[in-house]
Amino acid sequence: MVRLAALLGLCGLLAACGTAADLDDAPVPLGDFRLGHNIVVAPNLVKGPLSREASEDEWIAAVTEAVEDRFGRYEGERFYHFGISVEGYVLARPGVPVVASPRSALIVKVTVWDDAAGEKLNPEPETVTVTEALSGETVVGSGLTQTREEQIENLAISAAKQIERWLVKQNRWEGWFGGREANRRRVAQAAAQAPEAEPATPPDGTETTAAAPVAGE
Fold it and tell me: 56, 45 in Cβ contact below 8 A?
């Protein structure tokens, strides 16, 4: 617990992660992955220094929703389950001098289960640490520009995005979710199901057709 609290205190040095802006795009290929159970717990939750308060239930609800929003888009042939433990957080407080105010941060541990095989893909939980994305609102500390609820939501979204990045790496280099071959198969299936492009219509509304060949040409 002491080590975790110290890590939270240094979160201003860690890299910031993404947002939910890409959720309307097609998901990054992830083989035969389909989300099964999405279990989030927070039995060992630690609040970092100079942080606002947030309850276990708030973190569980926010992370569960963010993970469902991101991974519910995948429609692979096999189910995989997530076990996620929220370990610690910092929610930047208002009224704290910028030089002393840590950036908001969240630490979670992730375990992935293969439903068909009935076993873990990673024997040891993967630790994912994210900080608030740097923006015009957060450059002076999100405690001055965001509500506590907004901070929680944004960190949960960033954690889900970072989990996705980790799984994409495992898929490509460790063969998770059927590996690269499953990626190629899914891309081919998506291309086959894509609607054909309609012929272009000129501004006057008439349909264009190929000119009939002239005899003798």
Answer: yes
Total length of the chain: 217
Q: Can you read off the two tokens belonging to residue 13?
A: 């040095």
The whole-angstrom distance between residue 184's C-alpha and the CA centroid of its chain comes to: 22
In the chain, where the domains are located: 2-21+28-187
Q: Along the chain (217 residues), what's the average pLDDT of each consecutive run of 10 residues?
A: 50 51 90 97 94 97 98 96 98 68 88 97 97 57 74 96 97 95 86 68 52 47
| CATH code linked to domain 2-21+28-187 | 3.40.50
The predicted model scores a pTM of 0.79
1 class by beta-carbon count within 10 Å (0-12 exposed, 13-18 middle, 19+ buried): exposed
Dihedral pair phi/psi, residue 154, rounded to 5°:
-65, -40
Spatial separation of the C-alpha atoms in residues 105 and 14, rounded to whole Å: 9
